[in-house]
Fold:
Amino acid sequence: MDEIFSKKHYRRTFFWIVSLLLVLALVIRFFVLPHFSPDQALTGSALLGSLLDNFVVSLFLAVFLGGFVFWLTPAIVKRSEIEVIAPKQINPLLKSVATDTRVWIYKGTCGRYTRATTLPKLADAARIQGIGRDISICILNPKNEALCAAYATYRRSLKSANSGTPWSRQVVQEEIVATAVAALKFQFSEPLLRIRVFFVDHFSAFRLDISDQCVIVTKEDKEASALRADAGTYFYDSYKDDVRLTERQSKEMTCCGKLEFGESVDEAKLREAIKCAEIFEENKLEDLNVTRLLSLINTPSDPY
Structure:
């Protein structure tokens, strides 16, 4: 029942079906049944009395059973609730929680959604409310060619690989570098944002987006459901601890000084940012498609 009421489209269908069944039951009780058995006819006062009697009994049973189940439920189960999120609800949920949180943590691979949607949402919310945001981003190490090649192979094996740019080591590195440079741009252009980027030397099939309200666990497949654990639950705290351990085993991106960014990033600024933050080897930058890289930074697309 909780699963039905928590999802808008399920909830609407449920109430329509219940309403139709209620109307059907009333028609049968008041018109069909008395037609075949006249002694079953009810007057208005008799109907009201019957409804009140049933209401009192139902209310007593609901309160008693609810209290009994609550008393029997162990405390660890109450703190371990996790919810399944339908694929179509993931994007709206991520956007809604980004507007109200003070802290955002991302642990994933390339950070495409973080670059295209989350960072702009957090920046807008910080400006409107005048309150800063702390952001932590864990992405793959673009200098680790074997890791990027292995992740590209993994992405090619998924159903989602049938559309868009074919995944290769070069494409993975371009996506990661674009996310790192975009993070630098937001860090220096938005004074209310404090952003930390960590380069990780391993990847997982799961991505974590953690806000003040909840943690959302997703996979690369757009048709796959997500998991949600609210703040204060066992799983929420466990996922945050997992990110802490990942950060301790990763290399944090540091910048040599303050960078000045305009509305868009050109090739000169791109090279300056990469060199200053040591995101990628400068002598290997020619291996990447600089034109595509600039497009990923200046006009990012929402992968959802």
Summary: The mean pLDDT is 86.
